[in-house]
Design a protein that fits this description.
The structure is a single chain. The chain has 142 residues and is an all-alpha fold. It has seven helices and no strands.
Amino acid sequence: MHLTILQRIAQRDHSAVAECLDAYGGLVWSLADRYLKPYGDDVEDAVQDIFVEVWRHAGRYDPAVASEATFIATITHRRLIDRRRKHASRPALALERPSEVAHHSGANPDGAEKHDELARARSAFARLDQDEQQVLWYSLFH
């Protein structure tokens, strides 16, 4: 019997995860970009959240009910609606001018240190190859 990608993910077949990203990453990305861009929400973060949700619920997939693309698109749609609702419920934040941020950072050395530490972490993460980034991401969030 030939198992689908989602059935293999449900059985914890790690090679199926990469296949899922290759097969459906474009679909999820394009939907997230279309839904979230007008809100200024982070598309990459949303896509990661969606795939975590897909991996968590892969065991619910039934090929007799829908295609994998439909199953993934449904999860994507639900998560994106949730993000839009969450975004809409937040009060609008006034963006500070760079000079004001610098002024605040100088007044709070801990804030400046945290900002520097975050910048170093982002830089170090960006230097990793894609496989290493995925492994690190999975270890932190899965």
